[in-house]
């Protein structure tokens, strides 16, 4: 029964993407199933249904799920705040780190990636709403930040990430997504053609994010259901 629920929820998201107008084809939008605080069995079920991309927020939880997964390993993205002392725990287990927002973090990622002869793909997280509770660099800091990490040999910057404020009116958050797309496009015109990915959009606002050019949506509740906040 659980497999049917997950399959139905995932299918609904794919169908809604197909009906969402975007500058990208729907198959170019990566659905990251945010599996934090969800049992390994859910990941195994979705993997058996041929969905292989998952997002985790906590290093220890990602490590445990990766190491105990039965069968071919899925693709994990790390999407939450990352402490420098936890980088070594996940560096050989993640395809992409979304939440890079500090030069010190970049330095540690590069160092740990070098140890295992890996070029680690990253996104820079931006705080475009100036909320003190949110991580991310400011718009003005973006270009200097990029220039400061250009010489790292074991880092590959492939895109940008942001989280808007919550609003019941999705048109309120559209400008945030549009701004991230504009920042990416401006960087492309300045010679940073490798910066292509836009990680933006979650369960409540992914349709608007896709309309504004998102290439990656981070969807948890719409696939797995609401998390048990008491556990």
Record keyword descriptors for this entry.
globular; alpha/beta; 9 helices; single chain; 17% strand; 231 residues; 8 strands; eight-stranded parallel beta sheet
Can you describe this structure?
- The protein has 231 residues and is an alpha/beta fold.
- It has one domain: TIM Barrel (Alpha-Beta Barrel).
- Helices cover 37% and strands 17% of the residues.
- The protein has 9 helices and 8 strands.
- The protein has helices spanning 2-18, 40-48, 59-68, 87-90, 103-115, 142-148, 174-189, 206-211, 221-224, and strands at 30-34, 53-56, 75-78, 96-100, 120-126, 155-162, 197-199, 216-219.
- Strands 7-6-5-4-3-2-1-8 form an 8-stranded parallel β-sheet.
- The longest helix is centred in the first third of the chain and has 17 residues, at 2-18.
CATH superfamily: Alanine racemase
Walk across the major sheet and give the strand order.
7-6-5-4-3-2-1-8
H-E order = HEHEHEHEHEHEHEHEH
Low-confidence runs (pLDDT<50, min 5 residues)? none
Number of helices: 9
| CATH architectural group | Alpha-Beta Barrel
The fraction of residues in strands falls at 15-25%
